[in-house]
User: Fold this.
Amino acid sequence: MNQEMKILITGAHGQLGVDCVRELKQRGYRNLYALDKEEFDVTNEGEMRLRMKELCPDVVIHCAAWTAVDLAEQHEKEVWQINAEGAKCLATLCKEGGAKLVFLSTDYVFDGRKEGFYDVSDEKNPLSVYAKSKAAGEDFVREILKESFIVRTSWMYGQGGPNFVKTMLRLAASGKKAIDVVDDQIGSPTYAVDLAKLLADMIETDRYGVYHATGEGFCSWAEFAERIFALSGWDVTVHPVTTAAYAAKVRGQAKRPLNSKLDKSSLEKNGFCRLPHWQDGLARFLQQEIK
Assistant:
Protein backbone atom coordinates (compact mmCIF):
# COMPACT_ATOMS: atom_id res chain seq x y z
CA MET A 1 0.00 0.00 0.00
CA ASN A 2 1.40 3.37 -1.06
CA GLN A 3 0.37 5.66 1.79
CA GLU A 4 2.05 8.64 0.08
CA MET A 5 -0.31 8.43 -2.88
CA LYS A 6 -2.22 11.66 -3.47
CA ILE A 7 -5.95 10.98 -3.49
CA LEU A 8 -8.67 13.47 -4.41
CA ILE A 9 -12.24 12.65 -3.33
CA THR A 10 -14.92 14.75 -5.03
CA GLY A 11 -18.32 15.11 -3.37
CA ALA A 12 -16.55 14.44 -0.08
CA HIS A 13 -19.50 15.49 2.09
CA GLY A 14 -21.94 13.21 0.30
CA GLN A 15 -23.11 9.74 1.16
CA LEU A 16 -20.21 7.75 -0.31
CA GLY A 17 -17.63 10.52 -0.06
CA VAL A 18 -17.88 10.63 3.74
CA ASP A 19 -17.13 6.93 4.03
CA CYS A 20 -14.37 7.00 1.43
CA VAL A 21 -12.57 9.71 3.40
CA ARG A 22 -13.03 7.78 6.65
CA GLU A 23 -11.80 4.50 5.16
CA LEU A 24 -8.73 6.03 3.54
CA LYS A 25 -7.79 7.86 6.74
CA GLN A 26 -8.09 4.60 8.67
CA ARG A 27 -5.71 2.97 6.19
CA GLY A 28 -3.12 5.63 6.86
CA TYR A 29 -3.15 7.59 3.62
CA ARG A 30 -1.47 10.91 4.31
CA ASN A 31 -2.30 12.96 1.23
CA LEU A 32 -6.09 13.12 1.07
CA TYR A 33 -7.89 16.00 -0.59
CA ALA A 34 -11.55 15.76 0.46
CA LEU A 35 -13.36 18.40 -1.59
CA ASP A 36 -17.07 19.11 -1.86
CA LYS A 37 -18.88 21.18 -4.50
CA GLU A 38 -17.90 24.51 -2.94
CA GLU A 39 -14.23 23.59 -3.41
CA PHE A 40 -14.46 21.48 -6.56
CA ASP A 41 -17.37 22.45 -8.80
CA VAL A 42 -17.67 19.83 -11.52
CA THR A 43 -19.62 22.26 -13.71
CA ASN A 44 -16.73 24.74 -13.75
CA GLU A 45 -13.96 23.50 -16.05
CA GLY A 46 -11.61 26.36 -15.24
CA GLU A 47 -11.87 25.77 -11.52
CA MET A 48 -11.42 22.02 -11.94
CA ARG A 49 -8.32 22.54 -14.07
CA LEU A 50 -6.76 24.88 -11.50
CA ARG A 51 -7.49 22.46 -8.64
CA MET A 52 -6.09 19.46 -10.50
CA LYS A 53 -2.95 21.38 -11.41
CA GLU A 54 -2.56 22.56 -7.82
CA LEU A 55 -3.08 19.16 -6.17
CA CYS A 56 -1.60 16.82 -8.83
CA PRO A 57 -3.51 13.77 -7.53
CA ASP A 58 -2.46 10.24 -8.36
CA VAL A 59 -6.04 9.04 -7.98
CA VAL A 60 -9.45 10.71 -8.15
CA ILE A 61 -12.45 9.00 -6.55
CA HIS A 62 -15.35 10.80 -8.20
CA CYS A 63 -18.27 10.71 -5.76
CA ALA A 64 -19.74 14.08 -6.78
CA ALA A 65 -23.02 13.58 -8.65
CA TRP A 66 -26.63 14.62 -8.95
CA THR A 67 -28.42 11.70 -7.28
CA ALA A 68 -31.97 13.00 -6.71
CA VAL A 69 -33.56 10.73 -9.31
CA ASP A 70 -37.08 12.16 -9.37
CA LEU A 71 -36.03 15.81 -9.12
CA ALA A 72 -33.66 15.25 -12.04
CA GLU A 73 -36.65 15.01 -14.39
CA GLN A 74 -37.20 18.76 -13.99
CA HIS A 75 -33.51 19.72 -14.16
CA GLU A 76 -32.21 17.87 -17.19
CA LYS A 77 -29.61 20.47 -18.27
CA GLU A 78 -28.11 20.80 -14.79
CA VAL A 79 -28.05 17.03 -14.24
CA TRP A 80 -26.30 16.51 -17.59
CA GLN A 81 -23.69 19.15 -16.73
CA ILE A 82 -22.88 17.47 -13.42
CA ASN A 83 -23.12 13.76 -14.21
CA ALA A 84 -22.06 13.65 -17.87
CA GLU A 85 -20.08 16.76 -18.80
CA GLY A 86 -18.45 16.87 -15.35
CA ALA A 87 -17.24 13.31 -15.76
CA LYS A 88 -15.98 14.06 -19.27
CA CYS A 89 -13.97 17.04 -18.09
CA LEU A 90 -12.56 15.18 -15.09
CA ALA A 91 -11.52 12.21 -17.21
CA THR A 92 -9.72 14.58 -19.57
CA LEU A 93 -7.91 16.27 -16.69
CA CYS A 94 -6.94 12.91 -15.20
CA LYS A 95 -5.50 11.84 -18.54
CA GLU A 96 -3.52 15.06 -18.81
CA GLY A 97 -2.21 14.70 -15.26
CA GLY A 98 -1.58 10.95 -15.29
CA ALA A 99 -4.18 10.17 -12.59
CA LYS A 100 -6.37 7.13 -12.15
CA LEU A 101 -10.12 7.76 -11.97
CA VAL A 102 -12.86 5.92 -10.09
CA PHE A 103 -16.28 6.80 -11.55
CA LEU A 104 -19.35 5.76 -9.59
CA SER A 105 -22.30 4.67 -11.67
CA THR A 106 -25.62 2.96 -11.15
CA ASP A 107 -27.84 -0.02 -11.86
CA TYR A 108 -30.21 2.49 -13.46
CA VAL A 109 -28.15 2.47 -16.68
CA PHE A 110 -30.15 -0.70 -17.48
CA ASP A 111 -33.87 -0.75 -18.29
CA GLY A 112 -34.64 -3.69 -15.98
CA ARG A 113 -36.39 -5.76 -18.64
CA LYS A 114 -33.83 -8.55 -18.72
CA GLU A 115 -34.53 -11.78 -16.88
CA GLY A 116 -31.71 -12.84 -14.59
CA PHE A 117 -28.52 -10.92 -13.95
CA TYR A 118 -27.07 -7.96 -15.81
CA ASP A 119 -23.47 -8.52 -16.86
CA VAL A 120 -20.99 -5.62 -16.99
CA SER A 121 -20.97 -5.88 -20.80
CA ASP A 122 -24.74 -5.86 -21.30
CA GLU A 123 -26.20 -3.11 -23.44
CA LYS A 124 -27.31 -0.06 -21.51
CA ASN A 125 -30.78 1.43 -21.95
CA PRO A 126 -31.35 4.09 -19.28
CA LEU A 127 -34.93 5.18 -18.64
CA SER A 128 -34.64 8.44 -16.69
CA VAL A 129 -32.79 11.75 -16.94
CA TYR A 130 -30.53 10.72 -14.07
CA ALA A 131 -29.82 7.31 -15.59
CA LYS A 132 -29.10 8.74 -19.03
CA SER A 133 -26.65 11.24 -17.56
CA LYS A 134 -24.76 8.52 -15.66
CA ALA A 135 -24.68 6.26 -18.73
CA ALA A 136 -23.20 9.13 -20.74
CA GLY A 137 -20.68 9.77 -17.97
CA GLU A 138 -19.59 6.14 -18.21
CA ASP A 139 -19.14 6.44 -21.97
CA PHE A 140 -17.06 9.60 -21.69
CA VAL A 141 -14.79 8.07 -19.06
CA ARG A 142 -14.23 4.86 -21.03
CA GLU A 143 -13.52 6.76 -24.26
CA ILE A 144 -11.09 9.20 -22.69
CA LEU A 145 -9.23 7.36 -19.93
CA LYS A 146 -7.99 3.78 -19.97
CA GLU A 147 -6.80 4.08 -16.37
CA SER A 148 -10.31 4.12 -14.94
CA PHE A 149 -12.61 2.06 -12.77
CA ILE A 150 -16.32 2.34 -13.53
CA VAL A 151 -18.20 0.95 -10.55
CA ARG A 152 -21.96 0.43 -10.80
CA THR A 153 -23.74 0.13 -7.50
CA SER A 154 -27.37 0.18 -6.36
CA TRP A 155 -29.71 1.31 -3.59
CA MET A 156 -26.89 2.89 -1.61
CA TYR A 157 -27.26 4.23 1.92
CA GLY A 158 -24.86 5.57 4.53
CA GLN A 159 -24.46 8.13 7.26
CA GLY A 160 -23.82 11.05 4.94
CA GLY A 161 -26.78 12.51 3.05
CA PRO A 162 -30.41 11.42 2.59
CA ASN A 163 -31.33 7.86 1.66
CA PHE A 164 -34.14 5.29 1.80
CA VAL A 165 -33.18 3.91 5.21
CA LYS A 166 -33.14 7.35 6.80
CA THR A 167 -36.47 8.17 5.17
CA MET A 168 -38.09 5.04 6.61
CA LEU A 169 -36.70 5.83 10.08
CA ARG A 170 -37.92 9.42 9.83
CA LEU A 171 -41.42 8.33 8.82
CA ALA A 172 -41.54 5.85 11.70
CA ALA A 173 -40.36 8.49 14.17
CA SER A 174 -43.04 10.89 12.90
CA GLY A 175 -45.74 8.46 14.00
CA LYS A 176 -46.50 6.62 10.76
CA LYS A 177 -48.07 3.25 11.47
CA ALA A 178 -48.45 2.11 7.86
CA ILE A 179 -46.69 2.96 4.62
CA ASP A 180 -46.99 2.00 0.95
CA VAL A 181 -43.71 0.72 -0.55
CA VAL A 182 -43.03 -0.59 -4.05
CA ASP A 183 -42.60 -4.36 -4.22
CA ASP A 184 -41.97 -5.08 -7.93
CA GLN A 185 -38.55 -3.43 -8.18
CA ILE A 186 -35.84 -5.92 -7.20
CA GLY A 187 -32.28 -4.97 -6.33
CA SER A 188 -29.48 -5.02 -3.79
CA PRO A 189 -29.15 -2.45 -0.98
CA THR A 190 -25.54 -1.35 -0.59
CA TYR A 191 -23.93 0.05 2.57
CA ALA A 192 -21.57 2.91 1.67
CA VAL A 193 -19.04 1.76 4.28
CA ASP A 194 -18.64 -1.57 2.48
CA LEU A 195 -18.38 0.04 -0.96
CA ALA A 196 -15.76 2.50 0.29
CA LYS A 197 -13.56 -0.41 1.41
CA LEU A 198 -13.74 -1.95 -2.05
CA LEU A 199 -12.83 1.34 -3.73
CA ALA A 200 -9.85 1.69 -1.39
CA ASP A 201 -8.71 -1.77 -2.49
CA MET A 202 -9.17 -0.92 -6.18
CA ILE A 203 -7.08 2.24 -6.26
CA GLU A 204 -3.96 0.31 -5.24
CA THR A 205 -4.22 -1.74 -8.44
CA ASP A 206 -4.24 -1.28 -12.19
CA ARG A 207 -7.12 -3.70 -12.74
CA TYR A 208 -9.13 -1.15 -14.67
CA GLY A 209 -12.54 -1.78 -16.18
CA VAL A 210 -16.25 -1.91 -15.41
CA TYR A 211 -17.45 -3.49 -12.19
CA HIS A 212 -20.72 -4.23 -10.44
CA ALA A 213 -20.49 -3.78 -6.67
CA THR A 214 -23.52 -4.09 -4.40
CA GLY A 215 -24.50 -5.80 -1.20
CA GLU A 216 -25.00 -9.53 -1.69
CA GLY A 217 -28.53 -10.88 -2.03
CA PHE A 218 -31.69 -9.27 -3.38
CA CYS A 219 -34.97 -7.85 -2.15
CA SER A 220 -37.77 -5.51 -3.13
CA TRP A 221 -38.07 -2.02 -1.69
CA ALA A 222 -40.98 -3.29 0.41
CA GLU A 223 -38.88 -6.14 1.81
CA PHE A 224 -36.07 -3.67 2.47
CA ALA A 225 -38.47 -1.44 4.42
CA GLU A 226 -39.81 -4.37 6.43
CA ARG A 227 -36.28 -5.33 7.42
CA ILE A 228 -35.46 -1.74 8.41
CA PHE A 229 -38.46 -1.57 10.75
CA ALA A 230 -37.83 -5.05 12.16
CA LEU A 231 -34.21 -4.31 13.02
CA SER A 232 -34.87 -0.82 14.36
CA GLY A 233 -37.81 -1.87 16.53
CA TRP A 234 -40.49 0.28 14.92
CA ASP A 235 -44.03 -1.12 14.66
CA VAL A 236 -44.83 0.01 11.12
CA THR A 237 -46.88 -2.01 8.63
CA VAL A 238 -45.56 -2.08 5.07
CA HIS A 239 -48.20 -2.27 2.34
CA PRO A 240 -46.59 -3.63 -0.85
CA VAL A 241 -47.73 -1.81 -4.02
CA THR A 242 -46.75 -1.97 -7.67
CA THR A 243 -44.61 0.66 -9.33
CA ALA A 244 -47.57 1.66 -11.49
CA ALA A 245 -49.87 2.08 -8.50
CA TYR A 246 -47.30 4.14 -6.62
CA ALA A 247 -46.66 6.37 -9.64
CA ALA A 248 -50.39 7.01 -9.99
CA LYS A 249 -50.54 8.08 -6.36
CA VAL A 250 -47.26 10.01 -6.13
CA ARG A 251 -46.74 12.22 -9.18
CA GLY A 252 -43.38 13.16 -10.66
CA GLN A 253 -41.74 9.75 -10.37
CA ALA A 254 -38.85 8.97 -12.71
CA LYS A 255 -38.91 5.63 -14.50
CA ARG A 256 -36.87 2.96 -12.72
CA PRO A 257 -35.78 -0.56 -13.74
CA LEU A 258 -37.83 -3.39 -12.24
CA ASN A 259 -34.89 -5.80 -12.32
CA SER A 260 -31.62 -4.47 -10.90
CA LYS A 261 -29.88 -7.79 -10.35
CA LEU A 262 -26.21 -7.23 -11.20
CA ASP A 263 -23.67 -9.94 -11.97
CA LYS A 264 -20.64 -9.26 -9.76
CA SER A 265 -18.32 -11.98 -11.03
CA SER A 266 -15.96 -9.36 -12.49
CA LEU A 267 -14.90 -8.55 -8.93
CA GLU A 268 -13.70 -12.08 -8.23
CA LYS A 269 -12.13 -12.45 -11.67
CA ASN A 270 -9.92 -9.46 -10.87
CA GLY A 271 -9.02 -10.44 -7.32
CA PHE A 272 -11.51 -8.26 -5.41
CA CYS A 273 -13.86 -9.44 -2.69
CA ARG A 274 -17.62 -9.17 -2.94
CA LEU A 275 -19.40 -6.93 -0.47
CA PRO A 276 -21.18 -8.41 2.58
CA HIS A 277 -24.85 -9.36 2.39
CA TRP A 278 -27.25 -6.41 2.35
CA GLN A 279 -28.89 -7.53 5.60
CA ASP A 280 -25.50 -7.59 7.32
CA GLY A 281 -24.73 -4.09 6.10
CA LEU A 282 -28.13 -2.79 7.19
CA ALA A 283 -27.73 -4.22 10.69
CA ARG A 284 -24.35 -2.49 11.09
CA PHE A 285 -25.69 0.79 9.76
CA LEU A 286 -28.66 0.77 12.15
CA GLN A 287 -26.39 0.04 15.10
CA GLN A 288 -24.64 3.33 14.35
CA GLU A 289 -27.72 5.29 13.32
CA ILE A 290 -29.96 4.59 16.33
CA LYS A 291 -27.37 4.76 19.10
About this structure: The longest helix spans residues 76-97. Residues 226 and 238 are 6 Å apart (CA to CA).
